[in-house]
């Protein structure tokens, strides 16, 4: 029996990154709030800072935290 691989939208990932900032960089607290793995969230954060998070390549890391999600 195989596990289903969870997928998250680009919008969800961007909001999660913004929430890390709102939580003063506390990845573990943010992961708990979102009920996702701390490692997953940490990976997204690293990729966002590098500008390689899926769907965010056109944004610099500085702009990512300020991007408006509709």
Estimated radius of gyration: 12 Å
Number of helices: 4
Overall average pLDDT? 82
Secondary-structure element string: HHHH
* Percent helix: 40-55%
As residue ranges, the low-confidence spans are 56-60
The total number of structural domains is 1
3D shape: globular
What is the first-to-last residue Cα distance? 38 Å
Which structural class best describes the helix and strand composition?
Answer: mainly alpha
* Fraction of residues in β-strands: under 5%
Largest sheet: none
DSSP summary, beta strand count? 0
Protein name: Mobile element protein
Pfam families: HTH_Tnp_1 (PF01527)
GO molecular function, one term: transposase activity
GO biological process, one term: DNA transposition
Keywords:
70 residues, mainly alpha, Mobile element protein, sequence-specific DNA binding, Transposase_8, single chain, transposase activity
């Amino acid at each position: 029996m195989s596990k289903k691989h969870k997928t998250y939208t680009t919008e969800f990932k961007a909001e999660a990154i913004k929430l890390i900032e709102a939580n003063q960089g506390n990845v573990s607290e943010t992961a708990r709030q979102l009920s996702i793995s701390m490692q997953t969230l940490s990976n997204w954060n690293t990729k966002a800072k590098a500008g390689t998070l899926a769907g965010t390549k056109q944004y610099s890391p500085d702009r990512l935290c300020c991007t408006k999600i509709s």
